[in-house]
Design brief:
The chain is of the alpha+beta class. The protein has 6 helices and 5 strands; from the N terminus they run αααβββαββαα. The N and C termini lie far apart (about 45 Å).
Length: about 190
């Protein structure tokens, strides 16, 4: 298929543009088997291949088989399955390569460092002294700045603050707020 002109692009529907992106996506071609890869993981929804430019030996690119550019496009019911797939790949890297750990890295969007127009996680085996630099710089924000960010994220809602361990919950006791969420996550990841 020839590349559309600028005028043709302007007149395309979002569905047509998505299909054009999929047709030109290297990672969709990998998923389809049109471009060779070294598959190390596959399930119904996701594919994991060795990165040809790895940060460390065994660096896996784990991607949805369906073309998605960024994580917010992933259907909610697949987000948990994606986390489970990341866990399985991580366990395999630790076991098979005797890695001391893994870094699971997602660059979600161009400004976050995403290089390919197909959503993926990088699962990188890690060992002491491997010199892979994935630690972001840390900033210190004032309580006022934190409150402003919180207000933006919650729409100005007066959401309850999570008490610190020092402050405790009601009557100085440790708060159980969020325990149900943690229990649900624990069940999911076993």
């Amino acid at each position: 298929m020839s590349q559309p002109t600028e005028e043709e692009l302007k007149n395309m529907s979002p569905e047509q543009i998505a299909e054009l992106q999929k047709q030109n996506c290297l990672f969709c071609k990998i998923v389809a088997g049109e471009v060779p890869s070294k598959k190390v993981y596959e399930d119904e929804h996701f594919l994991g291949v060795l990165d040809i430019y790895p940060a460390n030996e065994g660096h896996v690119l784990l991607m949805p088989k369906k073309h998605l550019q960024v994580m917010p496009q992933m259907p909610g019911e697949l987000v948990g399955a994606f986390a489970v797939a990341c866990k399985k790949v991580s366990e395999k890297l630790i076991g098979a390569l005797q890695a001391q750990g893994t870094s699971v890295f997602i660059a979600n969007g161009l400004h976050a460092g995403q290089k390919a127009p197909h959503f993926m996680a990088h699962v990188i085996p890690r060992n002491d002294g491997d010199s892979v630099g994935l630690a972001p710089g840390m900033k210190e924000l004032s309580e006022k700045d934190l409150a402003e960010v919180k207000s933006k994220l919650t729409g100005g809602a007066n959401a309850k603050e999570t008490p610190s361990k020092k402050e405790g919950g009601k009557n100085g006791e440790k708060s159980n707020e969020g325990k149900a969420d943690l229990d649900a996550v624990s069940k999911l990841f076993g």
